[in-house]
Structures are given as structure tokens and as C-alpha cells.
Write a structure and sequence with these properties.
The protein is of the alpha+beta class. The chain contains twelve helices and eleven strands. Strand 4 (84-88) and strand 5 form a beta hairpin. Helix 9 runs antiparallel to helix 11 (298-312). The protein is globular and about 65 Å long.
């Protein structure tokens, strides 16, 4: 094991020679080791791999993670990410501070929301170009959503196409420079004695922080462990995020949370894990097959998101018809497949 840890001479000189090591669980796109050098604190060694990917994609993920970690390292007070201790770009290796996770707790969401706001507030217009702009729904996603409604024989109000076109314009990341993690899901947030720190910045970008605050409402759209957050903790989480952002920036959070949630709703790729994104029109699959990701099926995820958007847009100036369509679509899915389950709450998650 020790001989297979990809540490060059410079990294070994910086952190010491490994004395103990353990290969940790990680995605197929990386290898991660816990390493304890001689008489020094333990560290994490992470290597971005090209398993199943073109090497150019692995290089991009490595560069994005490094840039995200370096920007996250600006945090004053409690850290929001592990410290970056060293790199070997030729092997796509980074050495990180080892952060001991205190484990799952029932009240994990408020601390996560606070750290998420602190992370988002670290960057501004001067950082444009340091990371790619966040990606969001496209015109093809909007058309796929409308096609889904027609396939399920749900009438589309005449104003919905224009509402979706306006939504795409409002979700344009131009002018937004919050440091987005890219996948702020349970498992990528470590609880410590001084707050939550985020790991795995391979999808870091710059954009509107509401895209990630929306995770709590819309069911954690890039996560296998989808869940439905009850109203009371949800209100607390969003208040903490907004007050933390305001305290750090002196301004209110820009944008509209309903827009952010609607953006996640119409993205079919948010129904499947990363390896399958961009490979098919996922919404087009919904009428003929129900495909699982983790413990939750695509239709179950979709019903939750439809209900969220319907509830948020009843009195919305720009998405009223889209909300009515969402409500009708949710009803139709439940009529055709009455066995669809609601998403589990954080207290009822089957994976813990």
C-alpha cells in the first residue's frame, strides 16, 4: 500500500515519508488515501484519475478542484475547506489537510447552510475567470420539459414557453461570482468542532449561490441521497444562509430562489448520476421507464421537484403558468404510478 501512494520527492519532503496509509472510498474518478507520515499529522492524498474519461477531462477536474480549494482557502475564521498542502500536477495529485469528521447529527443542515454562505461569499467580480461560470438549464432542457408534458397528455398553458425562455435569461450566470462547490451534498460536508468544511471541489464554478441554496428545497439534485426537508428546518436553513451572506457582503442574496428551483426541475441530467449526464434526454425516458439512482427513482425525484416548483410559484410574477403545469404534471405522474414514494426526510434516510 505505501509503495503505491503517488507522492513524488517534493511532496514526500514536504509532508514526510508515509508510515501508515488507508485507501478510502471515493468515486471512480479519483483515488483517495488517508496517510500518516513519520511523526507528523495525518494528511489526505487525492489523485484525480481518467478512469472512463478522456485525460483532458481529468486534467480539467484537477484544475477546477485546485482553483476551488485555493479560493476556499481565503476564508478567515473557521475554514470552509481543508487546507491545500501540496500538489503534483503531472500526476494530478494533491495533498490536503486531514479533517476529522465528527459524524452525522440530527441538526446538520444549519451548519451546512452557514458554511455554504461563507463559501459563496469568498469571491466577487475580481475573480471572474478563476473558474468556469456555472452551467444551468438550456433551451434544449426547456423543450424537453414541454415534450414530457405532451407525452403524458398534460396540456401546456400557452404562456409557459415564454416563461421558460425568461427563466433561462434570469439564470444566466453573467454578473454572478459566488464560489460554488458544484456538488454540496451529504458526504461532501465534514462536520468539525468549528463548523462544516466542504470537500471534492471537482465541479467548482462561479455563479449565483441560490443554485446551491436551492438544494435544500429541491431535494439535493446532484446527489444520490435525495431527501425532502420539512418546512420548519427549511425556513431556518434559508434564514441562516441569507443572514450569513448579508453579514459578510452587506447585501441581500441576489436572484430568486424559485428561479433556481425551476432551473433544477427542467434539467433531465439532474435525474441521473454524473457518469450518465449528457448521454441521453433523461426526461424523455420518464414516460416509459423509471430508473433508480441510489434508493430513489427518477419519477420520485421528479414528483418532488414538480411539487416544490408548483408551491413556490402560485403567486410568482414570472412562473405562474409553469407552476400550474408543474402541479398538473405531478398529479399525472401520481395517477399513472400511484406507488411512487415521497422522498425520505432527513430523519428517515435509509442510507444511515
Amino acid at each position: 500500500m505505501l509503495n503505491h501512494i503517488p507522492l513524488n520527492d517534493a511532496l514526500r519532503s514536504a509532508i514526510g515519508n508515509p508510515d501508515q496509509a488507508e485507501l478510502l472510498d471515493s468515486s471512480p474518478r479519483s483515488r483517495v488515501w488517508w496517510v500518516r507520515p513519520d511523526d507528523r499529522p495525518a494528511v489526505i492524498v487525492k489523485q484525480i484519475t481518467d478512469d472512463g474519461d478522456a485525460s483532458a477531462d481529468a486534467d480539467t477536474r484537477f484544475a477546477r478542484e485546485l482553483a476551488g480549494l485555493r479560493l476556499a482557502g481565503r476564508a478567515t475564521g473557521p475554514a470552509v475547506a481543508p487546507a491545500l498542502l501540496g500538489t503534483d500536477p503531472s500526476a494530478r495529485v494533491m495533498v490536503l489537510e486531514y479533517v476529522e469528521d465528527l459524524g452525522e447529527t440530527a441538526d446538520w443542515m444549519p451548519g451546512c447552510a452557514e458554511s455554504l454562505a461563507r463559501l459563496h461569499a469568498l469571491t466577487g467580480p475580481a475573480d471572474a475567470g478563476a473558474l468556469p461560470a456555472s452551467s444551468g438549464p438550456t433551451a434544449a432542457d426547456a423543450e424537453s420539459f414541454l415534450t414530457l408534458a405532451r407525452a403524458l397528455d398534460v396540456p401546456v398553458p400557452s404562456t409557459v414557453p415564454d416563461e421558460l425562455a425568461g427563466l433561462l435569461e434570469r439564470l444566466d450566470p453573467s454578473g454572478h461570482h459566488a464560489l460554488l462547490h458544484g456538488d454540496p451534498c451529504p458526504g461532501n460536508d465534514l462536520r468539525t468542532s468549528d463548523g462544516v468544511r466542504f470537500v471534492d471541489f471537482e465541479r467548482a464554478s462561479l455563479g449565483n449561490g441560490l443554485l446551491e441554496l436551492a438544494y435544500f428545497r429541491i431535494g439535493f439534485p446532484t446527489c444520490w441521497c435525495a431527501m425532502s426537508v420539512p418546512t420548519v428546518p427549511l425556513a431556518e436553513v434559508e434564514d441562516i444562509y441569507r443572514s450569513t451572506w448579508r453579514g459578510l457582503t452587506g447585501k441581500d442574496v441576489p436572484g430568486d430562489l424559485a428561479d433556481a428551483c425551476a432551473g433544477w426541475l427542467i434539467q433531465g441530467d439532474a435525474l441521473v448520476e454524473r457518469a450518465h449526464r449528457g448521454t441521453a434526454d433523461q426526461l424523455a425516458r420518464v414516460p416509459t421507464e423509471d430508473f433508480e439512482w441510489g434508493y430513489i427513482s427518477a419519477r420520485e425525484r421528479l414528483v418532488h421537484r414538480l411539487g416544490v416548483v408548483a408551491g413556490m410559484t402560485r403567486d410568482h410574477d414570472h412562473l405562474h403558468a409553469t407552476g400550474r403545469l408543474s402541479s398538473a404534471l405531478a398529479d399525472r405522474l401520481l395517477e399513472r404510478w400511484p406507488g411512487l414514494r415521497p422522498l425520505p426526510t432527513p430523519a428517515d434516510r435509509p442510507w444511515y
